[in-house]
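Entry for pyridoxine-5'-phosphate complex. Fields follow.
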Amino acid sequence: MFLRLCINIDHVATLRQARKADEPDPIAAARLCEEAGADGITAHLREDRRHVQDADVDGMLRVLKKPFNLEMACTEEMLLIAERLLPHQVTLVPEKREEITTEGGLDVTREPEELTAAIARLKKAGIRTSLFVDPVPMIVERSAWLGADAIELHTGTYAHHPDDPRTIGALREGARQAAALHLAVHAGHGLTVKNVGLVAAIVEIEELNIGHTIVSNAIFEGIANSVRAMRRAMDAGR
Ligand code: PXP
């Protein structure tokens, strides 16, 4: 199975919002990522709008040629935005105001009816749905009950402890379990050129969402080279 590389452009917007200026433009960056071989673009419209803005999502959906994945919290405000803008895919993520980045996967055991209803609404609008979850057997199993098309396995623990075989083991097992439950398997968070190989080697995984390292490396080598380097590292690992 081909492994898609979807680039999360949030931190291009972080840099712009640091000055509340109009550069750098995340839409222009997303176009360059597409031209450099990205298979899709991802952006997280946070409730506090700390980086990506509504107009960025709107603009990207107008100009991008590849699928667009909107990361968002499961709230009425965000559901209405998704239903209006119609991204190709929505990834539901947990969100806390005080966090620096998404810290853990969704707690699919709490208020599952809310998630089931949101997934049904998104599906009715023709949007593919994914749930960002930790690679924990009970969580993966519960995710399958909720009716999403995919899960995105949280790779943060592996990224922080890549030398602990339990962390990659949990991702391998989670991917196997999800595929057996007929879920498409995505993964992301904290992945870099250095650590992506072992994740790319998990055959059930079909999509990676990678952001911070791409934008970080872009400062030194340009965003197109940054995307290409990640693609090479993924292909080598696969
Ligand atoms: N996937 C999800 C659900 C995320 O919330 C994030 C971070 O916004 C990523 C992937 C990308 O993580 P990183 O920026 O560390 O590559």
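NOTE: Residues 8, 10, 44, 71, 91, 93, 101-102, 132, 152, 188-191, 209-213 surround pyridoxine-5'-phosphate (CB under 6 Å).
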